[in-house]
UniProtKB/TrEMBL annotation:
Residues 16-145 form the Schlafen AlbA-2 domain. It comes from the Bacteria. Signal peptide: none annotated. InterPro entries: RecG_C_sf, Schlafen_AlbA_2_dom, Schlafen_AlbA_2_dom_sf. Pfam families: HATPase_c_4, SLFN_AlbA_2. It comes from Pseudobutyrivibrio ruminis. This is AAA family ATPase. Transmembrane segments: none annotated.
Length: 499
């Protein structure tokens, strides 16, 4: 969706951010445009507005950004395309409609919309050296990507994922037999007639993708998936000393307690991923409600919520980047829900993940290992299953937050009830949500004031202004009779209704 002149003016009141960059460019294309192009492509996309001067000493947004316009838009656009299609950058990810002009009262601006680059095209960089010419974006502007960030982008290009690489000199001696036996027992219960049940441990692992041989070189050994899922703690820490596993129960705390239960490496357990998953999954679901239900005269204790929580945990494991310079697989149980944080940014845009039907796990072998014993849905259906379970219980939509600076993703699942239609305060109080109702009143007031100032804004812009997560902001917006949504889901904005 193209921006209008008025929309740009309203955005400037919010200032530059991770998705908006302004440049003066009165008569020529600034060289820094290509840095912003690289940064937006490698982060989450954004718009470059040419024809706006910034006074960095001015703190008032209305005075900080001065719309000056472009004197020769046709020539600048032609120069931009010629440069982009030359050897200035390694990839042109734009289409014709991504570069356009808007005008008002004789003032012309050039807009360059840069989409988020597909994972198989990153890094998008300037010049010939990705380690020198790759940029990323934060709220402060463009910055040089670190070597580790560039390596992560290059790793993610691999269509086979990151966990099938053979680890030379790591063999069956590095497998924790107790862990593997536990997995095999679970596999046998789930797949009683499967031929793999008759194989020895090495062949069984080979079939799962946990052990492999390079036919070209003759090198064989455990794969990344095999060692991390079933390995002994010591060889895992030797090979992956950059990765930590951490579970904390932060529910039911009193006084100055920071957690009531914790699982991290302490020498009492073999810290492989399968152990971490099975131990922690039980802790996460132990307090969830289990309504009485019989199936074929057998009580079924599993619910859609149980499965959704485990699915969130599975996603953490299969989407983690275990090759990063540092990272923590963090699982937190809170009074009002759960948080799953994994190292590595999203490979797909959030919109595609919420929609489902497509999956690009960094660790497809691990995904198979977990799916074969009943954990994790078919490719692309897991996240929609989480959304459905939470929606059916009337809870706030699960929030997937990507931090492209820390290079991590956090999934928040909360038991907070979704906002009540028409702001029914009496019902909220009746449900024991008096505090929530009062907080919502403050947020509603701030939303109305903000929209009165800027005219229209997206969920993300409103959320940033009032200090809430986009999911919670979206829930509140849906209750407001004085606010209406315009545009499609992807480009939806909110405005005040005409009196």
């Amino acid at each position: 969706m193209k921006l209008s002149f008025e929309e740009i003016k309203r955005k400037l009141l919010l200032g530059e951010n991770v998705n908006l960059e302004c440049k003066e460019a009165e008569s020529t294309i600034p060289k820094s445009v290509y840095e912003s192009y690289s940064a937006f492509a490698n982060t989450s996309g954004g718009d470059i507005v040419l024809g706006v001067k910034e006074n960095k000493k001015e703190t008032n947004p209305e005075k900080r950004f001065i719309i000056q316009g472009i004197s020769n838009p046709t020539k600048q656009i032609e120069d931009f395309w010629n440069t982009l299609n030359g050897n200035k950058v390694n990839a042109n990810i734009l289409i014709d409609d991504d570069v356009y002009t808007v005008s008002a009262d004789g003032v012309v601006l050039i807009i360059i919309h840069v989409p988020r680059a597909s994972y198989n095209l990153k890094p998008v960089y300037i010049g010939e050296n990705p380690y020198k010419g790759t940029f990323k974006r934060n709220n402060e502007g463009d910055y040089h990507a670190t070597e580790h960030e560039v390596r992560a982008m290059i790793r993610d290009q691999n269509p086979n994922g990151n966990d099938s690489a053979i680890l030379e000199h790591y063999n069956m001696d590095d497998i924790d037999i107790t862990t593997l036996s536990s997995y095999r027992q679970m596999f046998k219960v789930t797949n009683p007639e499967h031929v793999w049940n008759s194989y020895d441990d090495k062949e069984f692992l080979r079939m799962l993708g946990g052990y492999a041989k390079d036919r070209m070189t003759g090198v064989e050994g455990l794969t990344v998936a095999g060692l991390l899922m079933f390995g002994k703690g010591l060889p895992i820490r030797e090979k992956f000393d950059n990765i930590l596993m951490d579970y904390r129960d932060e529910s039911g705390l009193s006084g100055d307690m920071r957690w009531s239960d914790r699982l991290t490496y302490d020498g009492t357990w073999e810290n492989n991923l399968f152990n971490f998953f099975t131990i922690v999954a039980r802790k996460l679901t132990s307090d969830l409600k289990k309504p009485f239900r019989l199936e074929n005269e057998t009580r079924i204790d599993d619910t859609a919520v149980h499965k959704a929580v485990r699915e969130g945990f599975v996603n953490l494991i299969i989407h983690s980047d275990y090759m990063m310079d540092a990272g923590v697989l963090k699982v937190i149980k809170k009074e009002d829900g759960f948080e799953f944080t994994n190292p590595g940014v999203l490979k797909l845009p959030k919109e595609e993940i919420y929609l489902g039907g497509n999956s690009k796990a960094r660790n497809p072998k691990m995904q198979t290992m977990l799916r074969m014993v009943g954990f994790g849905d078919n490719a692309g259906s897991g996240f929609p299953a989480i959304l459905k379970a939470w929606s059916n219980n009337g809870w706030v939509t699960p929030e997937l937050v990507e931090n492209t600076v820390l290079n991590q993703v956090c999934l928040s699942l909360t038991f907070e009830k979704a906002a009540i239609k028409n702001g029914d305060k009496k019902t909220a109080i009746k449900n024991g949500e008096k505090k929530t109702a009062k907080k919502s009143e403050v947020h509603i007031k701030n939303i109305i004031e903000f929209l009165s100032t800027v005219g229209e804004a997206s969920t993300a812009e409103i959320a940033e202004k009032i200090g809430l997560k986009p999911s919670r902001t979206r829930e509140i917006l849906s209750t407001l009779d004085d606010v209406e949504a315009i545009g499609s889901n992807k480009d939806r904005k909110y405005i005040l209704k005409s009196k």
